[in-house]
Amino acid sequence: KLHAWDTIKGSDFLCDQDVAMRFAEEIPKEILLLEHWGIPWSRSPDGRLAQRAFGGHSFNRAVFAADKTGFFEMQALYDTLQKYANVSRYDECYVTSILIKDNVFCGVTVWGLTSGEFFLIQGMVDKGNRHQVYANFKPWIMKECHGSFPDILALNTEKGCLYQMEYHEE
């Protein structure tokens, strides 16, 4: 509950408090899952997960993997993704537009940079990690690249899809 309180307080009570509570309850399980998927979390001398204060934490709570947490997270997620034959990846692709009908997201148009072809992917946007997208019919994920974040923000801004961007942390 203290984790949820820190989150709520850090947002000046503007965040969705139910979401903060759910996040605080679920994140310990997710950390263990990520460890099983291969993230080498840093350890304290007694072998437990090392923790440090981060952001508005009132005590050491954030786990980390040396100074490469993001790298290890992306690698573990990529390696785990490779185990599933029903997941399609679209590497070297660029989302050119977001398709909305009757105020509901229904897909994206994509330019394949290696083939030069344009194609449509029907789906829904996952609000995690800024660029992750999962389709309704066939899951897919777009590899994070340096040029994608501002472009995705611009496309979402154009369609009025952004929510509480004041809480986004890079």
Mean pLDDT: 77
Q: What's the total helix number?
A: 4
- CA radius of gyration is 18 Å
Strand order of the largest sheet: 4-5-6
N/C terminus separation: 25 Å
Coarse structural class: alpha+beta
Secondary structure: helix percent? 25-40%
How many domains? 2
Oligomer: single chain
Q: What's the β-strand tally? A: 9
Helix and strand element order: HHEEHEEEEEEEH
Low-confidence stretches are 126-147
GO molecular function: oxidoreductase activity
Organism: marine sediment metagenome
Keywords: Flavoprotein, Oxidoreductase
Pfam families: FAD_binding_2
Description:
The chain folds into two domains: 2-81, no CATH class; 88-167. It is an alpha+beta fold and 170 residues long. Helix 1 crosses helix 2. The protein has four helices and nine strands. The chain has a three-stranded antiparallel beta sheet with strand order 4-5-6, with helices on one face. It has helices spanning 2-10, 17-36, 69-81, 148-159; strands spanning 51-52, 62-63, 88-89, 93-101, 104-112, 118-122, 124-125, 133-134, 140-141. 32% of the residues lie in helices and 21% in strands. The model is unreliable at 126-147 (pLDDT under 50). Keywords: Flavoprotein, Oxidoreductase. Residues 2-122 form the FAD-dependent oxidoreductase 2 FAD-binding domain. Pfam families: FAD_binding_2. It comes from marine sediment metagenome. This is FAD-dependent oxidoreductase 2 FAD-binding domain-containing protein.
